[in-house]
Give the backbone structure.
Amino acid sequence: MKLLIQLKTVMVVAAMATGINAYAQDTVIPTAQLPKTSQTFITKNFNKAKVSQAQKESIAGIAREYKVYLDNGTSIEFGRDGSWEEIENEQSGVPFSVAPASIQNHIKQKFPNTFITKIEKKRYGYSVDISNGLELEFDSKGNFTKIDD
């Protein structure tokens, strides 16, 4: 009997989680509806590019994250608070200015003639893909930790 109750509880929780995800919605929004932090970041680091499309992902009407696509091929994901979480541009690269100075310096010194194609904030720090195909890992202070395979 106890097992049956536990099984029903697991099924209810799984159904609720699935139901919540079913209400996740991406909505195209005007750039002016992005958080001010995101707007400032785009202006500062991508002043020559224009926003092609901005989207808000929300669950049950509450913003979860924002996605922005620029006309130069860059895609940027922002958190609910407007801070960047992931930036990618395989063709022309991501501006070095978005990375902490220690990451910029490491790449310029150890991998000259390369550029950042993707940078992502992770729980432990940063994951950075560079144009020669390597994925570099850095801690939260921007110190190099390893090359990821």
